[in-house]
Design brief:
With 205 residues, the chain is an all-alpha fold. It is built from ten helices and no strands. The longest helix has 38 residues.
Amino acid sequence: MHVISDLVSQLFEWIQSLGYIGIMIGLMIEVIPSEIVLAYGGYLVHLGEINFFGAVLFGTIGGVIAQIFVYWIGRYGGRPVLERYGKYIFIKKHHIDHAEAWFEKYGTGVIFTARFIPVVRHAISVPAGISRMPLWRFIVLTTLAVIPWSVLFVYLGMSLGENWENIDEKASAYTHEIIIGAIALIVVYFLFKWIHSKKKRGNAA
């Protein structure tokens, strides 16, 4: 993100003035993509205004709460509401299509691994809510995925310092490997489920 509009600049100034709380709220409302907010949090760590642990902690809390909101919309409003208003939180119809296909194919376990896949990362909370997945399980799996994501982008933002706006270029090498790893985990999870179901059928027979 090389060019920042005046509005976005004001949002970053607001986040900076609030410190940890600003990072958390910035991630909760999703006006700016989470990666950029976290990278800016890393920049604030670089400036010495906040510390690394606090930035990761509040970034994780904000990221999880944002996904709980989407979960609730899916659970109580359903897909029509997301198709109409999802664009305001960076969720489009084709994102929901992919997320539902993944959820139906891999089940609740995909809530963790899908967080690292660009197309379905945010929208995977929709089918979780629609299927009424237990909230506690959703929160646990989402938190486990958000923590390393927060650590990565806060660290990269801190490393870039004044050049934190170049986060997309810096992160690309890391996210590519993360995506490959996430897909590998999904394959392993799918094989585990397939073997488990095969054993169940064998025992029943």
